[in-house]
């Protein structure tokens, strides 16, 4: 792909899509909460109608629902169906910045306004990439719940038979105030993908993950990694209210791996948390802010 041709195509996508928005509504029903709680190894009946939902669980709702005929070869909706048709074939979650503004309860209707906020082409060590930032604003009626700026990274396809470039990474911190060993079985990834309506084949089709996208095994869902780390950190927060967090995924994790969720103590209403793989490499970082 020539730099000029790529730049021209990205410029056209930016002109047509930047600022475009749409709305999705979701009922926060007891039935859905039972499935979410069970997936997270909690009592499925812990969230009856009227119960408060952990504020950072907002991202488990209001998933895009592309028709089956609009699903592409990688399991994502075809370019231009939901997200901008960025002219690079591989897409992965990279990071997010979240402001939590209020809570919500079982039985309420959660509304998400999705907006195309950033389309930015770049040259990286691994080749041509493009960053797409989606701004998701969640409300219940006129009451604000959260603003989530989510970054997705688009990159070129790897040649058949070659490996997908993976960041060698850096060692994870060793000064944790708390830590938790977390196994990532395929059943957990499947259930999370079902709840969030994510059909990306790298999470469940091992032949596709290896032969087409060049990974050594099935790839752990980055959204699930962030969910598990957030839940583990909140268990150490002493009942404090989470007001904001940032997260960055730095290294892929394979389904079936065992990782360590860890973090520091709360200081000045803030906490750092991270995920380390079995070799001690840093896979994800998170900064939490409490009110």
From TrEMBL:
<dbReference type="GO" id="GO:0019171">
    <property type="term" value="F:(3R)-hydroxyacyl-[acyl-carrier-protein] dehydratase activity"/>
</dbReference>
<dbReference type="InterPro" id="IPR039569">
    <property type="entry name" value="FAS1-like_DH_region"/>
</dbReference>
<dbReference type="InterPro" id="IPR052741">
    <property type="entry name" value="Mitochondrial_HTD2"/>
</dbReference>
<dbReference type="Pfam" id="PF13452">
    <property type="entry name" value="FAS1_DH_region"/>
</dbReference>
<feature type="domain" description="FAS1-like dehydratase">
    <location>
        <begin position="84"/>
        <end position="146"/>
    </location>
</feature>
<keyword id="KW-0456">Lyase</keyword>
<protein>
    <submittedName>
        <fullName>3-methylfumaryl-CoA hydratase</fullName>
        <ecNumber>4.2.1.153</ecNumber>
    </submittedName>
</protein>
<dbReference type="InterPro" id="IPR029069">
    <property type="entry name" value="HotDog_dom_sf"/>
</dbReference>
């Amino acid at each position: 792909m020539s730099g000029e041709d790529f730049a021209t195509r990205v410029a056209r996508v930016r002109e047509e899509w930047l600022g475009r928005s749409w709305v999705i509504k979701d009922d926060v029903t007891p039935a859905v909460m039972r499935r979410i709680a069970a997936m997270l190894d909690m009592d499925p009946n812990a969230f009856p109608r009227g119960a408060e939902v952990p504020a950072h669980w907002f991202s488990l709702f209001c998933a895009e629902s592309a028709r089956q005929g609009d699903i592409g070869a990688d399991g994502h909706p075809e370019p231009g169906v939901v997200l901008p048709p960025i002219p690079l074939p591989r897409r992965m979650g990279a990071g997010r910045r979240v402001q939590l503004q209020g809570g919500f309860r079982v039985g309420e209707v959660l509304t998400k306004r999705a907006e195309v906020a950033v389309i930015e082409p770049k040259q990286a060590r691994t080749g041509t990439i493009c960053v797409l930032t989606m701004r998701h604003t969640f409300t219940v009626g006129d009451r604000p719940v959260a603003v989530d700026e989510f970054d997705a990274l688009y990159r070129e396809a790897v040649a058949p038979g070659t490996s997908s470039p993976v960041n060698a990474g850096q060692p994870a911190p060793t000064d944790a105030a708390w830590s938790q060993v977390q196994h990532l079985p395929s059943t957990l990834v499947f259930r999370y993908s079902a709840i969030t309506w994510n059909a990306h084949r790298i999470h469940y089709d091992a032949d596709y993950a290896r032969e087409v996208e060049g990974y050594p095994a099935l790839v752990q869902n980055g959204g699930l990694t962030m969910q598990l780390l957030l839940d583990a950190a909140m268990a150490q927060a002493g009942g404090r209210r989470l007001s904001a967090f940032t997260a960055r995924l730095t290294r892929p994790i394979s389904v079936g791996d065992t990782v360590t969720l860890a973090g520091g103590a709360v200081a000045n209403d803030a906490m750092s948390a991270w995920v380390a793989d079995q070799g001690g490499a840093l896979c994800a970082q998170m900064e939490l802010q409490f009110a």
